[in-house]
Amino acid sequence: QVHLVESGGSLVQTGGSLRLSCAASESIFSINTMGWYRQAPGKQRELVATATTDGNTNYADSVKGRFGISRDSGKNTVYLQMNSLKPEDTAVYFCSAILRGFYYWGQGTQVTVSS
């Protein structure tokens, strides 16, 4: 079982930047896919970005060119760098890990972008 703890969410103005962190309880070397999802009030949870152990990344169209996902195996941490933030990016952001066919989730961190 993997425990994930997100941090870095905050209130930021439109156009600002934030970096979210997700610390895993075990080595992320063995976790093929880690990612970030978000859920806005009244909406379904949606994919933001994923990153695999072989370096492949995938982004939602709405964040391409603005967000960047990275993995630091030495720190067992996954990051989401968010630039040029928009009010529509406001959501709870969740870290995820897929390990041996199971999805694991963190508790989420709130990102609020003011206009």
Question: What does this molecule look like?
Answer:
This protein has 115 residues and is mainly beta. The chain has strands at residues 4-7, 11-13, 18-24, 33-39, 46-52, 57-59, 67-72, 77-82, 91-99, 102-105, 109-114. Strands 2, 4, 5, 6, 9, 10 and 11 form a seven-stranded mixed sheet that branches. The protein has a four-stranded antiparallel sheet with strand order 1-3-8-7, with no helix packed on it. The chain is globular. The chain starts with a strand and ends with a strand.
Which class do the helix and strand fractions yield?
mainly beta
Order of helices and strands: EEEEEEEEEEE
- Individual helix count: 0
- List segments where confidence is low: pLDDT < 50 over at least 5 consecutive residues: none
Work out the radius of gyration: 13 Å
Cα shape? globular
Strand content: over 45%
> What's the overall average pLDDT, rounded?
96
Record field, number of beta strands: 11
- The multimeric state of the shown protein is single chain
The N- and C-terminal alpha carbons lie at a distance of 39 Å
Q: In percent, how helical is the residue content?
A: under 10%
Described by strand count, sense and barrel closure, the largest sheet is: 7 strands, mixed
Detail the topology: elements first, then pairings.
Elements: E1 4-7, E2 11-13, E3 18-24, E4 33-39, E5 46-52, E6 57-59, E7 67-72, E8 77-82, E9 91-99, E10 102-105, E11 109-114
Parallel strand pairs: 2-11
Antiparallel strand pairs: 1-3, 3-8, 4-5, 4-9, 5-6, 7-8, 9-10, 9-11
